[in-house]
Amino acid sequence: MKIALVGDVHANLPALESVLEHARQQEVEAIWNIGDFVGYGPFPDEVIKRLRKSGAVSIAGNYDLKVLRFPKKKKKWRKSKMPRKWLAFKWAYENLSKKSRKYLRSLPRERRLEQDGKSVLLTHGSPASNEEPLTPDTPEERLVELAEIAQADIIVCGHSHKAFTHRAAGATFINTGSVGRPDDGDPRAAYAILAFDAGGFAVEHFRLEYDIDRAVAAVREAGLPEAFAQMLIAGVDLVTILERQSVEDRSQ
Questions:
Q1: Residue 57 to residue 124: CA distance in whole angstroms
Q2: pTM for this predicted structure
Q3: For the chain, which terminus, N or C, has the lower number of CB atoms within 10 Å?
Q4: What string of pLDDT tens digits covers the 252 residues of the chain?
Q5: Is CATH 3.40.30.10 the right assignment for the domain spanning 2-110+177-251?
Q6: Which of 210, 211, 230 has its CA nearest to residue 219?
Q7: Neighbours of 48 (CB within 10 A)
């Protein structure tokens, strides 16, 4: 049994299509998605429809939940959040169909599954919080604490946009990395395959080329900030892009 582990698509349809095609070629039999369908990218509704069509077992990510709260929070967030981040929430909400908003609202924040005798927890951030980023540098002591909270053999997570697999306290943590908005300096799409066989399992991480030019062009055609396009090109987060632009402006 092969299962594609995906997450943090962030409305990047070309990246998602590349991942799903690769997963099909690997003959996966299921797709597990740890959320953050939307945000920053120009294809929020299309990404939700594509993942639903694929039959993905999904949870809602922290960004998905914030986008749904945007109408009630927009005045407060206008004062507290960076202008481009506020705009990203606004644009994502306004470019989701009512059907897609309803679907996101229906999703749980985590799921517990059983596969080949192994217990699995799908969570966006960590077993303690959907906004706690787990990375390759997360201390062993913290993973031990989280394994105790999770009470699962396999913990599939995302949020940090940094892929890894690590075993702690008898549990295997798998961060899928980001399909659509990598933050590690590598712009290629990231996902993993979890393969079960003869009572055991193995994890393989992939980085895939995709049509970044198409994604970047769609960002610009939508009238979204150029910084969002540069995030895709460089494979880094918004703050890093803005810092780079500030340095360039000062040097001119």
A1: 13
A2: 0.96
A3: C
A4: 999 999 999 999 999 999 999 999 999 999 999 999 999 999 999 999 999 999 999 999 999 999 999 999 999 999 999 999 999 999 999 999 999 999 999 999 999 999 999 999 999 999 999 999 999 999 999 999 999 999 999 999 999 999 999 999 999 999 999 999 999 999 999 999 999 998 799 999 999 999 999 999 999 999 999 999 999 999 999 999 999 887 766 665
A5: no
A6: 230
A7: 23
Pairing mode of beta strands 2-6, 189-197: antiparallel
Q: How far apart are CA 29 and CA 212, in angstroms?
A: 27
How would you label 119-136 residue by residue, b for 16+ Cβ within 10 Å and e otherwise? ebbbbbbbbeebebbbee
Q: Are 152 and 119 in contact (CB under 8 A)?
A: yes
Task: Indicate if the alpha-carbon torsion angle 148, 177, 236, 218 is positive or negative.
Answer: negative
Report the relative pairing of strands 57-58 and 30-33 from DSSP bridges: parallel
- Quote the CA–CA distance of 29 and 68 in Å, as a whole number: 31
CB 193 within 8 A of CB 206: yes
